[in-house]
Sequence to fold (1006 residues):
Amino acid sequence: MNPLRRAGARPGPAFTVTLDGREIEALPGRTVAATLWAAGVTSWRSTRGAGRPRGVFCGIGVCFDCLVTVNGRPNQRACLVPVRPGDEIRTQEGTGHDD
Amino acid sequence: MVGAACALYAARAGLDVTVVDRGAVTGGTTGAGEGNLLVSDKEPGPELDLALLSGRLWSELAAEDGLGPAIEYEAKGGVVVAATPRELAALEAFADGQRAAGVTADPVAADRLHDLEPYLAPDLAGAVHYPQDSQVMPALAAAHLLRASGARLLTGRTVTAVLRAPAGPVRGVRTDRGDIHAPAVVNAAGTWGADVAGLAGAPLPVLPRRGFVLVTEPLPRRVRHKVYAADYVADVASDSAALQTSPVVEGTAAGPVLIGASRERVGFERSFSLPVVRALAEGATRLFPFLSEVRALRTYLGFRPYLPDHLPAIGPDLRVPGLLHACGHEGAGIGLATGTGQLIAQVLTGTTPGLDLTPFRPDRFPEEAV
Amino acid sequence: MTDRPRLAVVGAGPAGLAASLAATSRGIHVTLVDSAARVGGQFYRRPAAALGALRPQALHHAWHTWERLRDGLAAADSVEHLPDRHVWCVERRSDDFVVQALLGPDQRESESVRADAVLLATGGYEKVLPFPGWTLPGVVTAGGAQAMLKEGLVVPGRTAVVAGTGPLLLPVATGLAAAGVEVAALVESADPRAFARRAGALAALPGKVAEAAGYTARLLRHRVALMPRHTVVAAHGERRVEAVTVAALDGEGRVEAGTERRIPCDTLAVGHGMLAHTDLAESLGCRVEGLRVYADDEQRTDVPGVWAAGETTGVGGSALALAEGHIAGRSIAARLTGRAPDPREWAPAAKSRRRLRAFSALLDTLYTPSAHWTDQVTDDTVVCRCEEVSAGEIRTAVAELGAGDVRTVKLLTRAGMGWCQGRMCEPAVAGLAGCEQTPARRLLARPVPLGVLARAGEPQEVLGGEPRVDRGGEPQEVLGGEPREDRGGEPQEAHGGEPREDRGGEPQDAHGGEPREDRGGEPREAHGGEPGVGQGG
Fold:
């Protein structure tokens, strides 16, 4: 049983956000990370050294692996930031500061 | 760092060297430093001469096989900025004196400042550019110089006594894990140099002067030089025990920007001080407004080894034959380490030192200061 | 009300909630500062309110304890809950404290709370030891998978392996399976024979054993392969994990050659125990003993005015956190009103605390990572995830540059200098360097914008000059949000998660005094309370 059904969720209406320009559906209350997971995406950052893909690791804001750029602001923890209608989420490269 | 440099130059001069540290490699002030190799903040005099010598030696070491990148040596240059025309006039007068002593110091007009440092605040009066200022990563520098020295390294061993022959000369040190015999002992214990000097019966008034450093998130290179405000020079030279802060900002090879510098004499107090860190952040964001949005990931503190006249103690201690000191470099220990190491090696091998050591005499302090 | 003594509680998990309730009912004004949007901490992390979950308890254990805490809090008239506050430092001034917190989720502004005393109830986070492939997307901490499930009602993939060691793995595997994930295997390095040898001691807390048995039965029902005395040797994949290799461990904790087995999966949930958040205590100058904050019998640290409770003082689970929090709250209430507390008042809680600590110490000896885990860490394995420092670089620093401790390795390799400040890699670095794990002194508990630092401590920002009566105007949302069964007019304080051992011979201390009612088939926490992963405040 999927977790939404299991918990008897009656979420508010879904809305749209974008990941690198691609539209994905989001539920209110979810974080950016949960939204991306629900859309089947598990990585949204590449490291500044080897350029390796990363996504959620600790899930509670401690490890900073899930850093992402949201609405132009880099280095936000996807596991903490709630998703909002119209958010522009971008895969983050390197330091996130356009180097 | 100073101990590592002494070991390197002494070993290269043909001596058999043992390095003893009660902690780890780079465990004291070195590990809390920024790795400045500066001439810009020094007025003409013996310390500047030592800085110029040390700068040359650092660049020679950096040219050795693989060593430069390993210690993250960067001849990046320093930029000292003045906020007001009055500050600028004082800065330029200071630079005139330095030029006469052999320092390269190029005036930078306000309208050229952003060619050197594009992200500087817009309304500064002008600056002086010091191309000789350089940087290393201090912990790596100490570790790699030690390795290059080939010296025996005994960490985690505490010196508990300085061994003396009946007639007076030293013959080694006692540690908590056995004696080490040697005809010469170099006290390179930095901020804790007074303790070792005390064990030898040759008091030296080294005191801690605390400093905090703020480290930011990794960034692309936005701060190219070591950039600091002109009032830093006055703080460095000050005797005050009270808190002084002046912004010192620099990028690093690894990405983060380092922000100093605070000075206060509060003993070995290790707790966090929000007022100090706040002042550092305030100064840095004033120089580089873009830093306001940048996050500090950490802050750490260290204790500079302070001697009352701001000059290190370098050379033989006439009170105890065989004892040499190489400590008390305050905030310049990384930069001055190479010159210090070479001078110590020269003394140990009976060669004429490259600089007059009189101003650095360890026994220059009156007893009451000790 | 205005002149009530003021307590700031950092962290709204079990310890912080129990302390808040105990203190507020004894005349203390409590400001509860927490990083999450809703109280509960990691253990009682609930679905986001907007997801409208009608059955949040379906993904939870010990739900009745939560209801008691929640109801106690709803009735408390002097607990001010400040959600979404990420505490980055607690400043100790001459006669009070100022808690500095970034306002989430943007974290661009900071807010201050003044208090006469501070309780550090900042919880813990999960320890993970490295292996080749552990940085691949799809490899998550066990607690992280659970947190995302509990709050976001979302899972990372279709097929998972749960691995590592510790009491957390059972509920995580059960939770994922219940949420529709195919759990291919539960890989636990602990040796069941060790449990058998300590059967006597374990039987002292029969409730815990029954819980574990319950989990195991459910896992078997979900056809989860249980692989005790096994370890994950490597995770494989290019852009995300596609499979893991697991292998059996011999009696000495070495991988048995020839037992390697590849299991296809798109998720690996892995954990090797818990670590406490000690940062705020460090910056306040509190004594830290090894990996935990020192606290005395009253839960006082050695800094006057600073108390600590829960995982911060040593990892032991939610029931222990409740007991410690309760004691701390009572001690604080007495001390702030000029009385020396009488420990007899909290004797039941103290008894729970003693038993649960003993139990947790026992578990620590049973749930251990494989003794030779570093053998599997190849030189090219990234150990510091932030700065991408490899095991080979760390080994070089140790073997050739004289580094013999975590700090020196950090200085010489940058391991631990990145965004997470070593929280993730410290155990691994210590293991590779062959030394004790010593946490770095993290004087800033979180990244802070320099612009915020430059303004920190401006007087007008300090809250707490007068009590704020606006309690968000949304007690339901803050304190509950779920459909609530009416629990009538029972005295609230008694429900404040206060450890209860006052009911005769029931073995309820097995649950740290959590009230035990029959909860049918609901999953419960495993031994010792599933450690509350997280960082309060």
Summary: The first strand of chain B starts at residue 18 and ends at 21. The interface with chain A takes residues 217-221, 255, 295 of chain B (CB under 8 Å). The longest helix of chain B spans residues 46-63.
